[in-house]
Amino acid sequence: MNPNHLSRRNFLTRIGVGGVALGTIAVGATAACSKGAGAAEGGATAKCDDTTGLDDAAKALRTSLKYSDAAPDPTKVCEKCLQFVAPEGEAACGGCKLFKGTVSPKGTCAGFAAKPA
Ligand code: SF4
């Protein structure tokens, strides 16, 4: 193994992805996901953590950022995050600019960055 090789995980660790927004990483699909009762009205949390179809790197990034469909802190939910991509049409799940796959508007992760007021 080349000692100068910088793995994706090491790269993300070095740039501090846990607390800093990456900015322009392409957004994964915002395809439909399970819609919890009241999700569209901002009530229950939508189930958006299905990683079927994602490659190992994408799954690892979601895991490293500790994505969860349910945020313990209501002030740090995806829909209030700068990285959130709103659901399209009738979909309950949106996307995230930091990683592929769907996320719940009421979800959260370690990369949360509040939208400007
Ligand atoms: S809080 Fe949600 S929208 Fe913000 S970076 Fe994490 S998963 Fe993406």
Brief summary:
The protein has 117 residues and is low in regular secondary structure.
Set out the fold topology:
Elements lengths: L7 H7 L41 H9 L19 E2 L8 E3 L5 E2 L14
Antiparallel strand pairs: 1-2, 2-3
Bound molecules: iron/sulfur cluster.
Iron/sulfur cluster binds next to loops.
Q: How would you describe the overall organization of this protein?
A:
Helices cover 14% and strands 6% of the residues. It has 117 residues and is largely without helices or strands. The chain has one domain: High potential iron-sulphur protein (High-Potential Iron-Sulfur Protein, Chain A, Irregular). The protein has a three-stranded antiparallel sheet with strand order 1-2-3, with no helix packed on it. The relative contact order is 0.26. Residues 67, 78, 81, 83-84, 96, 98, 103, 107-109, 111-112 line the site of iron/sulfur cluster (SF4).
Major sheet characteristics? 3 strands, antiparallel
Low-confidence stretches: 1-8, 10-42
What's the helical proportion of residues? 10-25%
Please name the CATH architecture.
Irregular
Shape by Cα distribution: globular
Assembly type of the chains comes to single chain
CATH topology: High-Potential Iron-Sulfur Protein, Chain A
* CATH uppermost class: Few Secondary Structures
Total of DSSP H or I helical runs spanning 4+ residues: 2
State the secondary-structure class. Answer: little secondary structure
CATH superfamily heading:
High potential iron-sulphur protein
Approximately what portion of the residues adopt beta-strand conformation?
Answer: 5-15%
The Cα radius of gyration reads: 14 Å
The side-by-side strand order for the widest beta sheet comes to 1-2-3
Compute the number of strand runs.
3
Mean pLDDT rating: 77
Number of domains: 1
Distance between the termini: 47 Å
One letter per element, helices H and strands E, the order comes to HHEEE
Attached small molecules: iron/sulfur cluster
